[in-house]
Structure prediction request, 192 residues.
Amino acid sequence: MRQFPEVTPWGEEPAGDGDVVARVLAGDREAYRVLVRRYQDTLFGHALRLTADRDTAADLTQAALVKAYTELRRCREPERFGAWLFRILSNACKDHLKSRRRRDVTLDDARAGNAPGRSDPGSELERAELGSALRSALSRLPDTLREAFLLKHVDGLPYEEMTVLLGVSIPALKMRVHRAREALKAMLQEVL
Prediction:
């Protein structure tokens, strides 16, 4: 998981995840804020790409952060807290998507494809239709394929980092991304 540099008041090096987890487990509940700041934006972005709904993504991110806090003692490798937290969020997203399969495209989704400042209405409409078709096709992919595809092609993660986050071998991830790409290609050819 990508970690963002942290600004500290006295210019000292930010603590690693293992050190912060140890502080929290020792009773310093405020230290958990460091981990929240470190990971919440990345988690929200991933949840948003999987669910395509800002409110749902925010709820799932918050729930994952709370669950990680309450189950922090179960984190076997505190120095890899980010990967553990990512798996919690990933599982929550998958559970959400299984319980509420969404195949409808809302008006907000259609508007999201429009780029402000474009002068060609035909081009804008075409982009919106393509974006809508792509979101619809992504929603029909199995969760494992969709997640691997988004991590590789939207988040731009290397397979080595994906394997840490998902706990799956590199060859298996490459196969998932390939299958997702082929399935999307077939679905989009039907529509277009």
Summary: The two ends are 36 Å apart (CA to CA). The longest helix spans residues 170-191.
